[in-house]
Amino acid sequence: MVSPPPPQPTGHASTPSGEHGRAAGLHDTILRLLHILIAGLALLGAPGCAHTTAIGRGGPIFAVSVESIDGYPVVTGGRSSGYCYLLQVADRAVRVWPVVRSPRAVEADTFVPPEAGETLLEADAEALKSGILIERSWNQAVVHEVTDEELDVGAAMIFVPGERRSVVAELRFRRIGDPRPRATRGMRSPADGEPGDSASVAIREP
Q1: Residue of 71 and 195 predicted with greater confidence
Q2: CA triplet 33, 169, 59: central angle to 5 degrees?
Q3: pLDDT tens by residue, 135-169
Q4: Is residue 102 part of a domain?
Q5: pLDDT digit string, tens, across residues 25-74
């Protein structure tokens, strides 16, 4: 009598590689949420905290604009199609919407693209290096730490996680100002009998 073959494992059984993949995905999700939480706390930071400001931390000041998201230009308001994206650097934030061309608008040639290179945010180099948040939803967001090379080139391509695939956000950086001097505390005016700005000292005739 031939004995029956041993039972084969079903596809529902957990494998070490599958468990490792799920653990890695959960770990990445937790890290992404922590990044978003930190960026949100920076937005709600107490007034006067230098580490939460977009300008005043150090380095040249840049105008930040969005060239495209997923290949489409963006607008900051009005009628548009597509999901809303939040861009945030320290205590400054703005929402943008990708403008998707409808077949009817293309056929009628009525599509008017938004003005390219519109400044959305202003931030200094150190604030941008600390990270710029691009968020579509709570689980589709990324914090990108801008590098010196990207600031020199004036552009960065950032991959934002999506439901089925990553979406590419093309950012532009244009230098618009020199580093601002830090305020000096404890300075007194010449009227108080202490050294001060020589340009403010009145010259009296004998």
Answers
A1: 71
A2: 80
A3: 999 899 999 999 999 999 999 999 999 888 999 99
A4: yes
A5: 665 666 555 555 555 554 444 333 334 799 999 999 999 999 999 998 88
Q: Which residue is associated with the tokens 């060239």? A: 67
Total number of domains in the chain: 1
CATH of the domain at 99: 2.60.40
Residue 35 lies in a domain: yes
Which pTM value belongs to this model?
0.62
Domain of 137 in residue numbering reads as 23-177
Map the chain to HEC letters.
Answer: CCCCCCCCCCCCCCCHHHHHHHHHHHHHHHHHHHHHHHHHHHHCCCCCCHHHCCCCCCCCEEEEEEEEECCECEECCCCCCCCCEEEEECCEEEEEEECCCCHHHHHHCCCCCCCCCCCCEEEEHHHHHHCEEEEEECCEEEEECCCHHHHHHCEEEEEECCCCCCEEEEEEEEEEECCCCCCCCCCCCHHHCCCCCHHHCCCCCC
